[in-house]
Amino acid sequence: MRLVVLGGGESGVGTAILGKKKGYDVFVSDFGKIKENYREILTINGIKWEDEKHSEDLILNADVVMKSPGIPEKAPIVKKLLELNVPVISEIEFAIQFTNAVTIGITGSNGKTTTTLLTYHLLKQGGLNVGLAGNIGKSFAWQVAENKFDYYVLELSSFQLDGIVNYKPHIAIITNLSPDHLDRYNYDYNLYIASKFKITQNQTEDDFLIIDHDDVEINKWLHNHSIKAQIIPFSISSTVEKGGYINEQNISSNINNEQLTMPINELALEGKHNVKNAMAATAVAQLLKIRKQTIRESLSNFQGAEHRLEKVLKIQNVQYVNDSKATNVNATFFALDSMNTPTVWIVGGVDKGNDYDELMSLVREKVKGIVCLGVDNAKLFQTFNNVVDVMVETTSMEEAVKIAQRMAEKGDTVLLSPCCASFDLFENYEDRGRQFKNAVHNL
Description:
Helices cover 35% and strands 23% of the residues. The protein contains 17 helices and 20 strands. Strand 4 (64-67), helix 4 (76-83) and strand 5 (88-89) form a beta-alpha-beta unit. Helix 6 (112-125) packs across helix 11. The longest helix is centred in the middle third of the chain and has 16 residues, at 272-287. Pathway: Cell wall biogenesis; peptidoglycan biosynthesis. Belongs to the MurCDEF family.
């Protein structure tokens, strides 16, 4: 069996290693440059690879192709493969056939990283032999090749879900839906939503789908489509019979007729959206019979995700917050919503078709100044120029932080929540977040 892997990054190399171990004839092809460390790993493992090209004679003869999530369906090589009826699948789909582990699959437009890390933390603290993979950390295929976990918590992007045929998580979570990555879905929001719901397409009556009951789009989709999984809702605005809701100042979670109560002020993470993330993770822990006391302790001692509302430093009584992972309007909405002090907002980057009007009321209420950090800031200026007192443009993180420091007074917050992708000035959102933190430490 010939396995061709398109993309020589984390998921590609992991798939190649698993494929080799399972006796496939493996070839890795990357149209860009493969990083040095990944080249070494492929070479050491005796796996053939090429980069900066796709050689059709070495690719089109595949029995199966694993396409890395970053490569669009529209890529010429992918189109050719599909015309030849060669199966093109995702890493998750390839790897799942080689493990009997129970998987918890987590998707959504925002909150999925935090929910994934939090769920993993709860299950690990509860004593389960659990791995963490997907969009985060070490590739799932790589771990299936090298480790023997009984459970996996997987963060799944819509791109990973697009390449699924038979994969089914025992427990799935859809945190919420908001327009994101529409450039990959012909600017059709419904295609993007359908892609997220692929997470439940193979689930049976014995499986569970945990959803945000307050999310209009999720409810609309469920109203128009039937699914087999047992639905467990969570809500911060209404009481639900089964699932999570707010009762006075507590989270109340009712699963398998077991009621768990947790005071909201004891949660490690602040903000309404994190109450929801905690409800989703708690539901998983309860379904997997983790002790209530362990769940409560884990929710209160959890360390949040890097680059997601991460408190960096307080300098002259100004709090600096790194929310570089906020690459869309919805994520920035959560960030601004959780600010309780006047805020200097650093924003900008590659705009994926953002509608900034949704942020208008929060910006009026909370933001005193805006620092635009992007190559093209015209749309931001158009939207907010008359709303805030000061608005400045820059193309360097160091300068952005210095300008923000000058704008901020005692008791304020400086928030990096870019609302956009990072590729105009940075390698990725991690690079952007690290540069922000370095700049703050250098003040």
